[in-house]
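job 3f2a | input accepted
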Amino acid sequence: MRTRKQSKESGHKVSIEEEIEYKWKGVPMSSEAHLLDTTLFRGAILVPVLIGILLMVIAGLSSRTQLSPCFNAECFSTFFSLFKFQFAIMGLAIPLGALVASHHRSMQSAAQIKTQLNQNIFSNYIDHRKLFEQFFKDNNPLELRDPSSRQVWAIYDRVFPSAAYGDLSPNPTLKTFVKDIADHFHEISDLVKKELNPTSLNLKNSRIAFCWASSNFLVSDFLGISRPVVPIVIERDPIDQLRQYAQITLAIAKGLQDCANFHKFYENYSVIPEIERYYSEMKKVLEELQSINDARTKILNALENATDDHGNLNAKDDYASKSLSNRLKEFTHEPNVREYIDPEDVKTVLEHYIPSSHKQVFLDHMPVSWQLALQQSTNTSSVDQ
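job 3f2a | predicted structure (385 res):
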């Protein structure tokens, strides 16, 4: 039942029946209701008084002595002597009313404490969230590119899901999530060591791409950060893409640990050293493959720019032949470390990565130094055999 005040505030029109019920019955006890309007307080006062009056009437009617109005001292003494029990019952209204009033004050105090507590929780939540946002902007622990406020808030809600309710401890599932990241990373690291070598850098039919996509989906689903796996980009430069994946994975694992402990230390995740070890192992393998990967990428890009899908020089480009020769020649200058390609890598690219349809045009425009190196390598192989 709503109070008359609540009815007026909500725009509800109070009917005559409700007004009568309100006047006589009152409202349930609550911290918002006025003490005098509550049913319990009215009952604590009226019930003892009415019982006392009723007993007075019964005692008066049952008395053998004729009772009549009298206002002298002896009459008052007789009156109080006859009805002292009834007055005692009526007097119970005072302690009962005081007890109800005390209970009402307790309810109001509890409501005030609860309101203050909710305000403190909300204030702490806002301050904690602002501190996290500032921490994230200053340190970028997950190494995101220009993280937006929306992304930071989403990450905060994942790391501290109960902060709005006053619990500022980190998400207990973070450890499990980081462990899952480590398991995916371990599997990919092992696959990289087993499947990638100078003569095989193709990830199209490798399980690496599948595990990679699963790991990225795991991160995207948990943190709300999109990390799509683009097959074309991976196929074009798998070494660089795997290196970026390894760096980002390590950054996310360590970054989540830093986020969870940003305002108060809770714990270090024991799986972090394992991820660092997998990272070092993968990094070493990728560094060993970097030279052949660079040679493969540069030569295939040069061929792609100068030829069509069938391996013929672009008919629309009159200088395609010259530009291809000049571009390949740029890769023979040893002082230019960034562009130089070792002849041994050229041989590997020719044998394993250049499509058969493009091999002849590559051989026709190959720099002389490469031709001599390949011929010498072929002769050496023949002698060894």
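job 3f2a | The mean pLDDT is 84.
job 3f2a | closed
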